[in-house]
Amino acid sequence: MRTEQEMLDMILNTAREDERIRAVVMSGSRGNPSAPRDFFQDFDIEYFVTDMTPYIRNLEWIERFGERMILQLPDDMTDPPPDPHEGYAYLIQFMDGNRIDLSFRPLASLAMYERDSQSILLLDKDGLFGTFPPPSNADFLPRPPSAKAFADCCNEFWWVATYAAKGLWRDELPYARSMLEEYVRDALMKMLTWHVGLKTQYQKSPGKQGKYLKNHLEPELWDLFLKTYSDADPEHIWDSLFAMCDLFRRTAVPLAEHFGYEYPFEDDRRVSAHLRHVRGLPRDAEEMY
User: Fold this and answer.
1) How far is Cα 93 from Cα 190, in angstroms, rounded to an integer?
2) Of 54, 83, 112, 146, whose CA is between 20 and 30 Å from 224?
3) Which pTM value belongs to this model?
4) Regarding beta strands 99-106 and 43-49, do their DSSP bridges make them parallel or antiparallel, or are they unpaired?
């Protein structure tokens, strides 16, 4: 496996030798000083070029970066695809384990370029970018919720929980799991992000998809979080739903108290009772109540 320095040398030497490439920016976790370092980290690279045409759907050109395991062209995966002259990307997994997410941007679009706090200016042939501050994860730290955002999150969680219960009673497991994982969990993760923010004074992030949650949740809450995942057994899925409800409540109520927001205790009570009722409802029931 090529080292980080070998990869960066290759990326920069390619840019230096090509007059059409005028600047190189790296972003992503390699610009986050708080992110753990390991061999799975990819290289998020942007080349700013004077002419986009030579780099669009040019699989021969990208062969210089190494032997590919698999390639994705995300801009060609929508119908209709966007104008590739406004930006084009290659997501490349190499056989040696390295990965590059390589994007090309027209230099003419520089005025609209918005870097994030993890961006590192690797090369600027024309001095057009000015000076980048030291990279940090400041743009990705949790922020306190507004009263509306908090209320909307609570409403979404308890509202969609009833859909999951409906799917479970009907034995429609794909539907039930979809409601749980796409909506109920999304609201739960939002609440957990706010919880981590409050606990760390908004100086730590749970990471993308909560990948660092284990580092920041109290052990008891982390154990409860693990119980929100289940196999395909309907009873286990019910257990995971109630674990989600418990965890949501245990993080949302203190958050509401801290900010002086209103937690929907009555929604929680009524929906929780409904979930328990539906779980015990006979399969041959002809009425809900």
Assistant:
1) 31
2) 146
3) 0.89
4) parallel
Tell me whether residue 288 is in a domain. no
Strand partners, 93: 70, 99
CA–CA dist 188, 198 (Å, integer): 15
Residue 80: asked if its preceding bond is cis (omega within 30°), the reply is yes
Distance CA 20, CA 31 (A): 25
Question: If 0-12 CB within 10 Å is exposed, 13-18 middle and 19+ buried, where does residue 100 land?
Answer: buried
Based on the domain organization, do 175 and 185 belong to the same domain? yes
- CATH number of the domain that residue 41 is part of: 3.30.460.10
High-pLDDT (> 70) share of the chain, %: 100
Are 67 and 173 members of one domain?
Answer: no
Total tally of structural domains belonging to the chain: 2
Any domain includes 265: yes
Q: Which two tokens stand for residue 183?
A: 């909506």
Residue 284 is assigned to a structural domain of this protein = no
Indicate whether 232 belongs to any domain: yes
Final residue before a domain boundary, out of 92, 117, 139: 139
82 lies in the same domain as 160: no
The reported pLDDT for the residue numbered 94 is 98
**Percent with pLDDT over 90 in the chain:** 92
Q: What is the pLDDT of residues 9-59, one digit of tens each?
A: 999 999 999 999 999 999 999 988 888 889 999 999 999 999 999 999 999
Q: How far apart are CA 140 and CA 8, in angstroms?
A: 24
